[in-house]
# Entry
Amino acid sequence: MSVSAFAVKETGLAESIRPDLARIASWIAPGSRVLDLGCGDGELLAYLQETRRVVGAGVEISDEQVIGCVRRGVRVIQQNLEEGLALFDDQQFDTVVLSQTLQSMHRTEHILREMARVARYGVVSFPNFGYWPHGWSILMGRMPVTGEMPFQWYDTPNIHLCTLKDFQDLARSLGLRITHLAAFKDSKEVKLLRGWRSTLAVYRFESPNAN
Amino acid sequence: MADLSVPESQVNVFNAPTGSVGIVSPQYLSFDEPLHLASGQVLPAYELAIETYGELNADHSNAVLICHALNASHHVAGRAQEDPQDLGWWDNMVGPGKAVDTERFFVIGINNLGSCFGSTGPASVNPATGEPWGAAFPMLTVEDWVKAQARVADYFGIKRFAAVMGGSLGGMQALSWAITCPDRVAHCVVIASTPRLSAQNIGFNEVARRAIITDPDFHGGNYYAHGTVPRRGLAVARMVGHITYLSDDDMAEKFGRAQRAPAANGAFRYGYDVEFEVESYLRYQGEKFSTYFDANTYLLTTRALDYFDPARHHGGDLAAAMKAANADFLLVSFTTDWRFPPERSREIVRALLNNKRPVTYAQIDAPHGHDAFLLDDRRYHAVVQGYYDRIARELGLPQRKSTTGVLA
# Structure
């Protein structure tokens, strides 16, 4: 099923959702329970609530974003993700999403394990360090600064950057079974040579704890 | 049955400043159906002082109950007719255009049973003896308060509150409403509260109670008959309590080690009179409190706090205790609140998530300790406002006409 802006017109959502979020939405079963970690102002959850009737909850640390969620009618728990997901029981959700946050977390393995604990399916997106111009930049003697990673090396929140292969290795070592991959560059999906040509990778995996 | 007499000049809307419900006066509702209490005792009849703001809509769906904490009352918002200096205790939260918007919601404040601001309490006359109840007034629990409040809802024909909301002890009542009357609460708003007191909390309460009970003017609770008031004990109780409402940083900033009236060159006075500003402040707060608050009410209320523990009958399992709850929840805690710290709110959040109840939780990084729930904080008020706007949308109530108060 194609997830484009079709749902937007139907439901009257003002603006269309980012293509990577739309892709994530396409992996989520209607009526299921979704936890969105680092949910921002609740954009994805609001979209999922409207278009897929999901029962959603978000986790977010920023005051302004939490207020944004409340105003949108998205349920949100204010906490720092680095503290883990102790509030959530095992397999309490069908899908847990960590969108463009993994690369800035201190405890990468821990959050992935926690995701696998609280939900059957996990969705993770992160900037692809393997994007070929990054290599070019390094050959020219500079740390790469590009669209998905617009920060200078000294003030970047991105402390755990990886390539698609790197992530797949980690997923395997944690027992996460990857079911889907989508890759994007400039909001367009990339199908060929994704490891080099994409700036953003989105994975869906199944938890080893799922029944 | 409730006394159906119409209150005189409930709300005077004239000359009210923007965002204020204006000049308000209480109504007194009498209930003569016996109230069976958790202790096994029965209160044959009682009266409750209440205030209301805004208008109840035709289908009675826009009612909000505000529950008060230890020392507050039904006077939630506006200025009291009998004393215009007397501003409602949550006036920054409740009013036209405020977070709890009285242009859309019908808001009720109820003085709890056993209190001393117009509702039946230990200082009221016991009809059986013609004397003040004093020590004979029955012990009450949070659940008893909810039962008594439910009759106010019946009086107004409110089957289900749009929201029941409270801070601190008021939050416990909101929680108890959601558990004991699940079909009567659409949204439960619990601020700076806890599912149970800790040993430390009970310890502070016990210090306060001992201060009162050991005051020679207490006379075993029957001080009314002796024409005395255990003022010193009550003042000390308030001083102890007050410290727990503030954060260490807050006190450091407000008072530091500033001396009240130092001797020449800032020297100490080497005595037990007030030496530091903080002592002067606490003494003042204690003495002021002792002039208007009833000592038996203080005892009874702190005891109700101690007893509150909905998980008690479920082997300590809060999620099991909250299984019956059928409301959507908003919880708010404040990082520097060491009386009811964020961890206590998170326990409630966890129990709700476990039950798959819809819950929103905001943890406000504010410096003011427990008292923060009464203070102006834009983030806190924005969360509450956003939540009530959502309730209004769900109920099909009109859009917010204005934004006043903290968020204006």
The CA atoms of residues 25 and 39 of chain A lie 14 Å apart. Chain A is about 30% helix and 25% strand. The longest helix of chain A spans residues 108-118. Confidence is low (pLDDT under 50) at residues 1-12 of chain A.
